[in-house]
Design a protein that fits this description.
Number of domains: 4
CATH superfamily of the largest domain: Phosphoenolpyruvate-binding domains
Largest sheet: 8 strands, mixed
Shape: globular
Number of strands: 20
CATH topology of the largest domain: TIM Barrel
Structural class: alpha/beta
Distance between the termini: 61 Å
CATH architecture of the largest domain: Alpha-Beta Barrel
Strand content: 15-25%
Bound molecules: phosphoenolpyruvate, magnesium ion
Length: 651
């Protein structure tokens, strides 16, 4: 056993994301690892236990390791604790934390509504004014129908719990129209649901003859109460995350369905008791005018997410469920933290005037919405959206997307408990194409690998999943998975604007084999009499091999889309999740920029167009260089579109 003490330099201490990150680092080692703070020891592989230690920046902690790889493990954790910003993920966390802090509304005099009898004060969660009909989300408290099970039922009950947990814990979508910050929060919640201590306590309870739902509710409540008792406001706010995860698990175990938040179809002010970030992620954001919660605080994850999406929010509002149910209209002032219940005509007029003023402030960018951006010397650039599902279509259209440059179909596969059928896929692809017609919609074929499991495909454990059986490599080996997707795409191509691109191409043979499979699918569909149409086929350029053979590849495809996220990783031989080498993971690096330029030159020689669909496409500093190189399409998350259009017009 070895141990060493150190002063923690993690900004704001071990809150959710750093704790989740540290637990992930710890889990990579076989030895046992403990963190001791103020005399209390916690399993370093449990993010929940780490959070409960309440470690602050500047605290002295002891790291203890015991096992074969103890010295490497100790060194790695010490390095993280003392220099979290040496790594990319930590740097991102730092940025997110600053964004959070900066965006927390401070009560502003001008924005405050005169306090009347129908005015309730809460906590300012996210700036802005909203008014609208109320959508109440107040699910009945979950009650376990039984407490104790028979000894003989234990194995089946354990299986039932594990199954529910497995279905629940899906990695958050890579780019489901949510910001990187939302993704980090959701990943942290997934980590809670996978936490050794949380899950371990439930499993122990079931083994002790507890009913799975009853034990889950009990463990969740004890843990939530422990968080609530903490001195730190941020940590107290984590109780609602634990309750949110617990509620979802327990409802499934009880065979109950929580009200479906994804079905909100009228623009509304969403009213809830304590909405977890998990629940909020299911909400169709475009339909939410504002958010009011009786629980929560400015540091709630739900507040952070509301700020990210620019949704005015007031939290911690002291109203009972009955009072909330009695409200038909709410006006909320997210700057002052006030809610007006059933506002009178004068209050409504003032709220609407404020909303108008706020909208005008955004108008400077909004004027770019329907504009096709053209550089001053006359080069038109397509600015299109990266999407993960149909639920983001509206946001993308409202953000001014001129089509879709990357539809990540893997999300469709990851969200299901089994592989989506050809019919299910054809419906989604067709609806996506119709939503943007006549603008083009580029659908990417399945890009999954050993790091992202999908129900229905057996992935082997791999030493290097990013260099392994992923993307087109897996698809070509598994035609029974790939062909239904290609057939669905050919069927959706009837809409007329569908293009298809293939990820992770590293040799010409892969393109040819994809083409053969497409031709085979076309023949089958024709023979069956199923209507279909051909589509343009392009490839993603994200491996150095593809760059170095770009001339040969360009001769066989209709377009290139450069995936700078992976291209940077592979050109620089830099795993972007590895904190130690994060300074090498830079798209601006001359090596990566040269790779992009070589790709553009090959495209120009072959007379095909080239776009960029990695994060770099939205980089305002790089956009002029990309345009200069000959890129004619930039695909990005909807939130970045307006600023990118403006930037192009300035070139
Ligand atoms: C990329 O690699 O740049 C890309 C857009 O694909 P993904 O991020 O989905 O791997
Ligand atoms: Mg990629």
């Amino acid at each position: 056993m070895i141990e060493s003490s150190i002063v923690v330099r993690v900004h704001e201490g071990l809150h959710t994301r750093p704790a989740a990150h540290m637990a992930k680092l710890a889990k990579a080692f076989d030895c046992s690892l403990e963190l001791v703070c103020r005399g209390v020891a916690a399993n370093a592989k449990s993010s929940v236990k780490l959070m409960l230690l309440g470690v602050k920046e500047g605290d002295e902690v002891l790291v203890r390791a015991e096992g074969q790889d103890e010295s490497n493990a100790l060194e790695r954790l010490m390095q993280y604790l003392v220099d979290p910003r040496s790594g990319l993920e930590e740097a991102k966390e730092g940025t997110a934390a600053q964004v959070d802090a900066g965006a927390v509304p401070t009560p502003s005099q001008g924005a405050a509504e005169a306090v009347g009898g129908n005015c309730v004060e809460g906590v300012a969660g996210s700036k802005g004014t909203a008014i609208g009909p109320v959508h109440v989300y107040l699910p009945q408290p979950l009650v376990a129908t039984r407490q104790v099970i028979e000894e003989a039922e234990i194995p089946a009950e354990l299986d039932r719990f594990r199954q529910v947990l497995m279905n629940f814990v899906r990695p958050p979508a890579d780019d489901a129209g949510v910001s990187a910050q939302d993704r980090a929060i959701l990943q942290a919640l997934v980590d809670v649901a996978q936490d050794e201590e949380y899950v371990g306590a439930i499993i122990r309870g079931i083994k002790g003859r507890g009913d799975a739902a009853a034990v889950t509710l009990r463990v969740g409540e004890v843990l939530a109460a422990t968080f609530e008792a903490m001195a730190d406001a941020y940590m107290r706010a984590r109780a609602e995350d634990i309750r949110g995860v617990t509620r979802q698990l327990a409802a499934t175990l009880l065979g109950q369905k929580l009200p479906d938040l994804s079905r909100i179809d009228t623009p509304s002010v969403l009213v809830a008791a304590d909405l977890s970030a998990w629940e909020f992620a299911q909400v169709p954001i475009a339909k939410i005018l504002g958010l009011v919660c009786t629980g929560g605080s400015a540091t709630s994850h739900v507040a952070i997410m509301a700020r990210t999406h620019g949704i005015p929010a007031v939290l911690g509002v002291p109203l009972s469920a009955d009072e909330l149910r009695a409200a038909h209209t709410l006006a909320i002032d997210g700057d002052a933290g006030r809610v007006l219940l059933n506002p009178d005509a004068g209050q409504q007029a003032r709220a609407r005037a404020r909303i108008e003023a706020q909208m005008k402030a955004k108008a400077a960018l909004a004027e770019y919405r329907d504009l096709q951006p053209v550089t001053r010397d006359g080069r038109a650039i397509e600015v299109v959206a990266n999407l993960g599902g149909l639920n983001e279509v509206e946001i993308a259209r409202e953000a001014g997307a001129m089509g879709v440059g990357l539809f990540r179909t893997e999300l469709l596969f990851m969200q299901q408990r089994s592989l989506p059928t050809e019919d299910e896929q054809a419906t989604v692809y067709r609806q996506m194409a119709e939503a943007f017609h006549p603008y083009p919609v580029i659908i990417r074929t399945l890009d999954i690998g050993g790091d992202k499991p999908v129900a229905g495909i057996d992935f082997p454990r791999e030493e290097n999943p990013f260099l392994g059986w992923r993307g087109v490599r897996m698809c070509l080996d598994r035609p029974e998975v790939f062909k239904p997707q290609l057939r669905a795409l050919l069927r959706a191509a009837l809409v007329g604007n569908v293009r298809v691109m293939v990820p992770m191409i590293s040799e010409l043979g892969e393109v040819r084999r994809v083409r053969e499979l497409v031709a085979e699918c076309e023949r089958e569909l024709q023979a069956e009499g199923t209507p279909s149409a051909p589509f343009e086929l392009g490839i993603m350029i994200e491996t150095p091999a593809a760059v170095l053979q770009a001339d040969a590849l360009a001769a066989e495809v209709s377009f290139f889309s450069i995936g700078t996220n992976d291209l940077t990783q592979y050109v620089m031989a830099t795993d972007r999740a590895n904190a130690r080498i994060a300074s090498l993971y830079r798209v601006e690096h001359p090596a990566v920029m040269t790779a992009i330029e070589m790709t553009c030159q090959a495209a120009r020689r072959a007379g095909i167009w080239v776009g960029i669909c990695g994060e770099a496409a939205a980089n305002l500093d790089l956009i002029p260089r990309f345009v200069e190189m000959g890129v004619t399409e930039l695909s990005m998350s909807p939130a970045s579109i307006l600023a990118a259009k403006k930037r192009i017009c300035q070139i």
